[in-house]
Amino acid sequence: MRVVLLGSGRGSNAEAILQAQQEGRLGRARVVQLFSDRPDAGILALGPRFGVPAAFVDPAPFKTKLEGEGEARFIAAVGGCAPDLVVLAGFMRVLKPGFLGAFAGKIINLHPSLLPSFPGLDAIGQAWRRGVKITGCTVHHVTADVDGGPIIDQTAVRFDAGMTLEQLTEKVHAAEHALLPAVLASLAG
Ligand code: GAR
């Protein structure tokens, strides 16, 4: 199963996947490429470390969505890898019908809450401010309904009394780092 990872940030989830691959815990899944919409994203530094090609793809002209020329560049770059699965690991752009159609049924996303609670940005902060006692993380299929596609798997994270937002964030991230590689291994069979 050829996997392409897309990310915009520090890449800790991509790192968890690549670490799992190195340790033989990804089954038949194999990461063939990393792409980022930010030239300075930490995720790109993982390429040389793990021996996987990593590249910036210019997402212009939009800031928060992938459409127009940027979308065309991403479709060409990702399509060139002939992926069986496209994994959004902290890719902070809304995908539009062009990209969704090009890889229909093959795109999954990681989200730091128990969807359908707290979709959108700053999901951990949203849960924190709402005062929920249980939150978590979700891996789901990506559809035009942002953060609303069919759920593949979830992990619950308990808010312990007195926890700071930073501590809750750390706990959710730890849950993500276990969940996403496990989902890949399970999808790869
Ligand atoms: C993760 O917590 C992921 O769930 C979140 O971005 C973070 C990326 O961290 N994604 C979203 O909020 C998508 N809406 P990472 O770059 O260290 O993997």
Textual characterization of the structure:
The protein is α/β, with parallel strands linked by helices. The chain has one domain (2-188): Rossmann fold (3-Layer(aba) Sandwich), CATH 3.40.50.170. 35% of the residues lie in helices and 24% in strands. The protein has a seven-stranded mixed sheet. The longest helix is centred in the C-terminal third of the chain and has 24 residues, at 165-188. The model has no long low-confidence stretch (mean pLDDT 97). Bound molecules: glycinamide ribonucleotide. Glycinamide ribonucleotide is lined by residues 7, 9-13, 89-90, 110-112, 123, 173, 176.
Low-pLDDT sequence parts:
none
Name of the top-level CATH class: Alpha Beta
Beta strand count = 9
Rounded radius of gyration (Å): 16 Å
CATH superfamily membership: Formyl transferase, N-terminal domain
Distance between the termini: 9 Å
Q: Largest beta sheet: what is the strand line-up?
A: 3-2-1-5-7-8-9
Bound small-molecule species: glycinamide ribonucleotide
CATH architecture descriptor: 3-Layer(aba) Sandwich
| Shape verdict | globular
